[in-house]
């Protein structure tokens, strides 16, 4: 059995699929797995641009957890939920409608999994998903169940209790099959405003630095500032089309990029944040506006982004990106790969990224290369380099060569990946031996999964005996 995926990765040989309906089904599947027939859990399998639903290695049984879709607990007093892997953004947001709480949506399809995204350390529009994850329930390789972070066996979150906590180790790893997660909800605020502006492409370095200053200056509101859709030309200047390669998005404005800052808080806090954002970006952006996100007309092009700022997921970003009317991205006409480097928010680093993308584009032209900066912390931005290409064999091969070339450039520049794909996940720790994590993670894997039956090579390399 093989699957099509929008990234055009080499098809993995898959032993079969299983759709468990309960925690005990998952325990049985893990106990029955072997080194020759490991399990590879997915939640909704829409990890587009990074491998979609494909496993890292051949001969896995893909365990599709989308049927485990209960919201086990919604604690409206404490502000947390305990959800299962099949719970989608749409379902979660619907459950929170008319409550005092919001979900932190990503701009991916409304029918993607909250847990699947969190286990890849994704970014929501309001904050990084790492800040949403309070604890997990995991089935370990021997079939036993572990709960972490203060999540108990009865799906209640008690707060971080004494002793070591393995929550972080369960994210971007292969130490367990996650069957539930405690999620921190966002308090529904008095006001939600969305700052929107286009900025001339040549201002990008100064805009990123200004957004970093805003994050460092502690905006009094919730919301993740984003600079998106900076299209890069082969030369490293700006524009969409590579000579001789069909441009996918001819209609795009390629001389400017988009800046979005959601601001959620009290009326006073939002008013202050609006003044801070306008002042920092003054002279750098064109026609800035702050819209009241709760009153944007459905016909307004900003409607989807205003919804995302208000905790309402959408399919329209995905559908507009791919020019399709459903979210069947893997079967669509356009290929898509994403590369996710951690980027310093300085003009010099911004220039270095653009030059690297431009050089790789020149050598291995694709139809479109765009860069996005998610301003996740006062220290760094999570970068997303998006490559679009036709789905013929030549174009797919060129896109993968470009991705490979860029990965090397980013490593050389000191911009390591914060999130990886099925071709590279097993190299990330190995390529970064200086932090010692590869040795420790491999020993943890050997201790918890000595038979190597859970998602082999997903971030943590195959178990090897610990060095004496
Ligand atoms: C236009 C567009 C916009 C996007 N916007 C965003 C965005 O704003 N933010 C963002 O982060 N991403 C974004 N994405 C990327 C991606 O679509 C999302 O991250 C999506 O949520 C991942 O798919 P999923 O939820 O189905 O997770 P899955 O594909 O189910 O899971 C991802 C991986 O996590 C592991 N995993 C999943 N479930 C389990 C489990 N229960 N136990 C153990 N391991 C598990 C598996 O290795 C799996 O391959 C975007 C993509 C596109 C094309």
List its salient traits.
single chain; 468 residues; alpha+beta; 8-stranded antiparallel beta sheet; 12 helices; globular; disordered C terminus
Please provide a written account of the structure.
With 468 residues, the chain is of the alpha+beta class. Helices cover 26% and strands 24% of the residues. It contains twelve helices and 18 strands. It has an eight-stranded antiparallel sheet, sandwiched between helices. Strand 7 and strand 8 (145-147) form a beta hairpin. Helix 5 (204-216) packs across helix 9 (347-363). The longest helix is centred in the C-terminal third of the chain and has 21 residues, at 393-413. Flavin-adenine dinucleotide binds at residues 41-49, 65, 85, 106-108, 112-113, 115-117, 119-120, 122-123, 177-178, 317-318, 321, 336, 455, 458. Residues 41-49, 65, 85, 106-108, 112-113, 115-117, 119-120, 122-123, 177-178, 317-318, 321, 336, 455, 458 line the site of flavin-adenine dinucleotide.
């Amino acid at each position: 059995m093989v699957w099509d995926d929008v990234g055009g990765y080499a098809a993995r040989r898959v032993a079969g699929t299983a759709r468990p309906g309960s925690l005990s089904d998952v325990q049985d599947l893990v106990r029955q797995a072997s080194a020759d027939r490991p399990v590879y859990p997915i939640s909704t399998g829409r990890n587009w641009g990074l491998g979609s639903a494909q496993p890292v290695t051949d001969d896995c049984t893909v365990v599709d957890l989308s049927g485990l879709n209960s919201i086990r607990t919604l604690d409206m007093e404490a502000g947390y939920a305990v959800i299962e892997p099949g719970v989608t953004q749409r379902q979660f947001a619907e459950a929170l409608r008319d409550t005092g709480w919001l979900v932190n949506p990503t701009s991916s399809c409304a029918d993607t999994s909250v847990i699947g995204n969190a286990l890849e350390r994704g970014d929501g529009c309001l904050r990084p998903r790492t800040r949403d994850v309070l604890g997990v329930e995991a089935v370990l390789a021997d079939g036993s169940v572990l709960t972490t972070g203060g999540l108990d066996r009865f799906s209640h979150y008690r707060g971080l209790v004494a002793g070591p906590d393995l929550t972080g180790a369960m994210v971007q790893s292969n130490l367990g099959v996650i069957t539930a997660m405690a999620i921190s909800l966002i308090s529904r605020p008095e006001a939600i405003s969305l700052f929107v502006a286009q900025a001339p492409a040549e201002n990008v370095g100064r805009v990123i630095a200004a957004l970093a200053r805003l994050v460092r200056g502690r905006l009094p509101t919730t919301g993740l500032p984003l600079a998106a859709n900076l299209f890069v030309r082969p030369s490293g200047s700006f524009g969409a089309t590579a000579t001789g390669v069909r441009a996918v998005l001819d209609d795009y404005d390629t001389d400017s990029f988009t800046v979005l800052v959601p601001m959620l808080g009290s009326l006073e806090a939002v008013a202050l944040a609006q003044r801070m954002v306008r002042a920092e970006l003054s002279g750098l952006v064109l026609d800035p506006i702050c819209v009241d996100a709760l009153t944007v007309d459905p016909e307004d092009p900003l409607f989807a982004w205003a919804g995302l700022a208000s905790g309402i997921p959408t399919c329209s970003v995905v559908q507009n990106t791919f020019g399709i009317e459903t979210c069947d991205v893997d079967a669509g006409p356009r290929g898509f790969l994403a590369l996710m480097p951690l980027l310093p928010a300085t003009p010099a680093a911004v220039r270095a990224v653009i030059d690297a993308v431009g050089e790789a584009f020149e050598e291995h032209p694709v139809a479109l290369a765009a860069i996005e900066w998610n301003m996740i912390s006062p220290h760094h931005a999570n970068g997303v380099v998006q490559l679009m290409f036709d789905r013929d064999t030549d174009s797919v091969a060129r896109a993968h060569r470009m991705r490979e070339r860029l990965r090397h450039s980013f490593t050389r520049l000191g911009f390591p990946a914060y999130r990886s794909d099925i071709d590279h996940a097993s190299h990330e720790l190995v390529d970064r031996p200086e932090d010692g994590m590869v040795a420790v993670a491999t020993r943890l894997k050997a201790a918890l999964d000595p038979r190597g039956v859970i998602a082999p090579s997903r971030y943590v390399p195959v178990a090897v005996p610990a060095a004496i």
